[in-house]
Specification:
Blueprint lengths: L2 E4 L6 H16 L5 H9 L1 H14 L3 E7 L4 E9 L11 E8 L8 H10 L4 E6 L3 H9 L3 E9 L2 E8 L2
Helix pairs in contact: 1-3
Keywords: Acyltransferase, Transferase
Protein name: GNAT family N-acetyltransferase
GO molecular function: acyltransferase activity
């Protein structure tokens, strides 16, 4: 699949909010309570405003993946690690990487990951039970480090990649 990667513009906030809601429903159905997905969808306007603020402030490095026909099919966000630096973690955190289920296996996720972090050491959090995501990250050199944290949506597991 041909994909164009570009930083978001504030006017992309609505499409990004819709994509973020859609990909959560695709990736997490059966892994999080349905009520979580329904509640997120009900607050769509807040999500759009949140994305507009993030984009305007430049508070994370976000990349959007657009298909050849102009459809938004994925995004990634990276930034300085939010975990305790005393843990010896890489300084870069992959905060999000999502693609539409319709483009799974087409290279969009790989393109986003490569553009976002290249070969850099980094870490991320993955929802327990998300076998597809865990396998994807393992193929890109990430390993589970045994650290977990409970979140409102479920248990998250940390994965780290070091050169």
């Amino acid at each position: 699949m041909t994909v164009r990667l570009a930083p978001p513009r504030v006017e992309d906030a609505g499409a990004l909010a819709d994509l973020h809601l859609d990909v959560w429903e695709e990736a997490y159905a059966g892994l999080v309570p349905e009520s979580v997905l329904v509640e997120r969808r009900a607050r769509r306007d807040e999500r759009e405003a949140g994305w507009a603020g993030i984009i305007a402030r430049g508070s994370s490095d976000t990349l959007l993946a657009w298909s050849a026909d102009g459809a938004l099919v994925g995004f990634s966000s990276t930034g300085p690690g939010r975990d305790d630096p005393a843990e010896g973690l890489p300084p870069l955190e992959l905060m999000a990487l999502y693609v539409r289920a319709s483009v799974y296996g087409t290279g969009v996720g790989h393109a986003l990951l490569t553009a976002a972090i290249g070969d850099s050491d980094a870490y991320l959090w993955v929802l327990d039970g998300n076998v597809r995501a865990t396998g994807f990250y393992e193929r890109h050199g990430f390993v589970l480090d045994g650290v977990t944290k409970p979140e409102d949506v479920g248990l998250e597991r940390r994965m780290v990649r070091r050169s």
